[in-house]
Amino acid sequence: MAQRLGLFAIGQFRFERGKARYRTWREVERRPLDWASRSLQRAVFTRQLSVGLAVLLTLTYGLGILFSLKTHRELFVSAESGEASESPWPIGLALATLAGVTVLVALVSEIFVESVQKAAEAFGMTPAFVGFIVVALVGGAAEMGSAFSGARKNRLDLSVGIALGSASQIALFVAPVLVLFSYVLGPTPMDLHFWPGAG
Prior knowledge:
Layout: H1 2-30, H2 32-71, H3 79-83, H4 91-123, H5 127-139, H6 141-152, H7 156-182
């Protein structure tokens, strides 16, 4: 008896929900201009909110970098790094090495992109699969290697720091900066609502 009442209640609920949806559909059909104006207002609000959040997220990332590298550096130094007797590099050598490695990474990236495009065509991979899976795995290989190396040396702080640093850099810096630059460089402005259902 209780099961029948439960099924009846579920049926009644679905019937009432269907009636409400039908009424909503009829109202939308009667007022298409109102629906379009609401949709436009929602899009404008989403863009304004995205710009505000992008500025706030970028500022948060910058303040986090300032906190960890300048004001509270001692909190982020591990015990083993203080024992190392390595002398710091001269600034000229460090900048020259950074510039050289940057050029090499740019060349390797060009070769990688061409290789991935040819492989994707040969294997019939979709652009979404290549972008979300292949590029993410290969692009993160150096970070994963460094994290694994730190874990093997029993430096859990380094390993976790690499993983969290990468994720926070994408969420707090790369995505917001792309949104802000899209207003200057892109054909259409981008917002933080990357795909339907994301927000």
